[in-house]
Write a structure and sequence with these properties.
single chain, 187 residues, alpha/beta, Restriction endonuclease-like alpha-beta roll fold, five-stranded mixed beta sheet, 27% helix, 39% strand
Length: 187
Amino acid sequence: MAIKSTIFRADLQIADMDRNYYEPQVLTIARHPSETDERMMVRLLAFALHADEFLSFGKGLSVEDEPDLWIKDYSDEIGLWIDVGQPDEKRIRKACGRSRQVAVYCYSGRSAEIWWEQNRSKLQRIDNLSVINVQHDASKQLANLAQRNMQLQCTIQDGQIWLANDAESVEIDLAVWKPWSETVLKR
């Protein structure tokens, strides 16, 4: 018998001053049995950074053809595909072919750096791909915020990101290893 996902709930208040997005989100997050709190919280961070009325969690680890998060419009076109971790280059290329924009959020310190070193030359040529690294200390601190029922506030201002609960606040540093090309951003 397969182990079932663990369900987490998050009341997430987002104040994104960079995008003028101020909305509460009530999220139900299914954490796959093989997923860590750290990875789940990086998924939640990616949600906050790209919050949109059409953004939703995909099946990610459970289904090969779905991302961790995505934005799909009414005609089922994929506007944004978000993967968390260190996906293989073939998966990224396939996602880039299916979606207008793809974002990969890496974490886990040195192993993410090694992954990027091994894949950089191939991935740099893909215009609609962005690769962002969540600094190791920040991703570890995010894992400490994980609880089955979370009340979180996310503040984004001038590229600075804070995620907090009632007890602690985490400042999150991101390194953009590869930005989307200007032509993709203008679409």
